[in-house]
Design goal:
Helix content is 69%, strand content 6%. By secondary structure, the protein is mainly alpha-helical. It has 4 domains: 158 residues, no CATH class; 58 residues; 71 residues; 70 residues, no CATH class. A 4-stranded mixed beta sheet has the order 1-2-3-4. Strand 3 and strand 4 form a beta hairpin. The protein is elongated, with a radius of gyration of 28 Å.
Length: 377
């Protein structure tokens, strides 16, 4: 169950996975006592970090929203692109800055109240406030101080490493030009620095940090390859050719539209161009009386990328009404109201079968609930 509230007028949403992951990360030699202290400290630390981003973004005219989820926190600002380079950098740095302030304050208070002989650092070490693995005798206050110090100072510093999508990566993106080119350059830095940081984190025993930076580098690498494919398609003029095929389709030149789109499919690299070309082929082939060729083009796409209504039309024209009904149902659930009549037609043609009975049952259930649209599978 999500938790929603506002702090300083800023919307905050906490997903259940945030608590679960915090629990898993906190469970260790300290047992139940350390977990009970750890989870609130993680919450305070992550929220403080995100509030740093949010408050500075709002100061610059943005409308930030904070989400705490399995991987930590995220501050989304709709107007981020309009902030400009230096303000965007300020927003990125503000998260770590807020954490550093809280960590330093915790360190100062802990040093002031700790008793005994020796320097402040020695007293804190004896109290267990400077370790993530305190002894069983450490008091809850010492545990809390240690966790807050490490979470805010340690993780704040790690978060500034230049790897996307962390704050350090976002700063590098702006310093290297911002926009698309800045992102590309920062992405190259990330795919080089990310694995190095991940290995260093694993060797140092920071397993969670290693996983985060390893996954971040992998995700950025995938996005980098997708961007490269898109730019290659643009360079090769495939977007202009797509426009030509779409115009031919609208003009009723079905064979020309299908032939051009099929030619594009043979050379396209990016997912977006392939998806658009496949749908042009399907539209043209269905209208030309060859739904089988349209279906083949759509089924060649990765799962979930083909339009369900168009898939349903191809199947219905081929006499496979039972299968078509399932796609029309999904299309209606996704807001394609044009698919409602097609769904009724497919159900009528399909007759009585296990699949059509299930679809009709879902339709009745939604009508009784007052929702008016059938459920997806």
């Amino acid at each position: 169950m999500e938790i929603r509230f506002r702090i300083a007028g800023i919307p905050v949403k906490i997903l259940p996975a945030f608590w679960l992951v915090s629990l898993l990360l906190g469970w260790g030699p300290g047992g139940f006592k350390s977990v009970v202290v750890w989870i609130p400290c993680v919450f305070v630390g992550v929220l403080c970090h995100e509030l740093g981003h949010a408050l500075v973004a709002r100061r610059f005219g943005g409308k930030p929203e904070i989400t705490l989820y399995a991987m930590g926190g995220l501050t989304h600002t709709h107007e981020r692109a309009a902030l400009g380079r230096w303000r965007s950098i300020a927003v990125s740095l503000a998260g770590a800055g807020a954490g550093f302030l809280l960590g330093a304050l915790t360190l100062a208070v802990a040093a002031a109240v700790s008793g005994g002989d020796g320097t402040a650092i020695e007293r804190l070490q004896r109290a267990g406030a400077l370790t993530l693995s305190p002894g069983a005798q450490a008091s809850p206050l010492a545990l809390a101080a240690g966790y807050l110090i490490w979470i805010n100072l340690g993780w704040g510093a790690v978060n500034l490493i230049p790897v996307l999508p962390f704050d350090g990566g976002n700063v590098v993106r702006e310093l290297l030009g911002g926009g698309e080119q800045g992102w590309l350059r920062a992405a190259w830095v990330s795919v080089i620095a990310g694995p190095i940081v991940a290995v260093a984190a694993f060797v140092s025993g920071w397993t969670w940090a290693g996983l985060l930076f390893g996954l971040a580098a992998m995700q950025t690498g995938r996005e980098l390859m997708a961007q490269w494919r898109r730019l290659a398609d643009k360079r090769d003029g495939l977007y202009e050719r797509m426009d030509g095929a779409a115009k031919a389709l609208h003009a009723g030149e079905l064979e020309r539209a299908a032939a051009e789109a099929e030619a594009i499919l043979r050379v396209a690299r990016g997912a977006g161009v392939k998806q658009g070309a496949a749908h042009i082929v399907a539209f043209a082939r269905v209208q030309a009386g060859r739904p089988d060729l349209g279906l083949a083009a759509l089924e060649a796409l990765p799962a979930g990328e083909a339009d369900d209504m168009l898939l349903g039309v191809c199947l219905l024209e081929m006499g496979r009404a039972d299968e078509a009904a399932g796609h029309f149902e999904v299309a209606v659930v996704h807001g394609e109201e044009r698919s409602r009549e097609l769904l009724e037609e497919a159900l009528e043609q399909a007759g009585d079968s296990d699949r059509t009975r299930e679809i009709r049952a879902r339709m009745r259930a939604r009508e009784e609930a007052g929702e008016g649209t059938p459920r997806g599978e």
